[in-house]
Amino acid sequence: QVQPVESGGGSVQAGGSLRLSCATSGYAYGSYCMGWFRQAPGKEREGIATIDSDGSTTYAVSVTGRFTISEDNTKKNLYLQMNSLNPEDTAMYYCAAASLPRYWCTVVAGTFLKGLDKWGQGTQVTVSS
Q: If we measure between CA atoms, which residue out of 60, 99, 90, 95 comes closest to residue 80?
């Protein structure tokens, strides 16, 4: 699989929305675990959302109810819809694939981050108050 390519970042005011996109080479066959993580300057990586080959999703507490992860029918494009953004969401956002069994595809306990296999260059999201 080639490196994912993210897009859609930008600058918004608090309360605004952005939709991030991620182009991959596709995971049309077999089990997979994909997701998004973010990293702000001086902070550790934070796994924020995952989706597995069955369409099951998990979210970090910090984004639950505000962010939605999805993929298209081709299984080649991943999305992250981000609503009600706040300044604490400012970070570089990365799309990633993890070498994890489907039943371990979760952001809980840092599992997704521990299984990272490939990720993109990232797209910057900046939220101003």
A: 95
Cα angle at 63 between 92 and 35, to 5 degrees?
60
Closest residue by Cα to residue 90 from 59, 128, 44: 128
- pLDDT tens digits, the chain, 129 residues: what are they? 678 999 999 999 999 999 999 998 865 556 789 999 999 999 999 999 999 989 999 999 999 999 999 998 888 899 999 999 999 999 999 999 998 888 899 999 999 999 999 999 999 999 999
**Amino acid at the residue 53:** S
Q: Tokens 């952005």, residue?
A: 18
From residue 47, how far is each of 16, 27, 30, 96, 128 by CA, in Å? 21, 20, 23, 10, 22
Residue found by looking up tokens 């999703």 in the block: 57
Tokens of 79: 């999305």
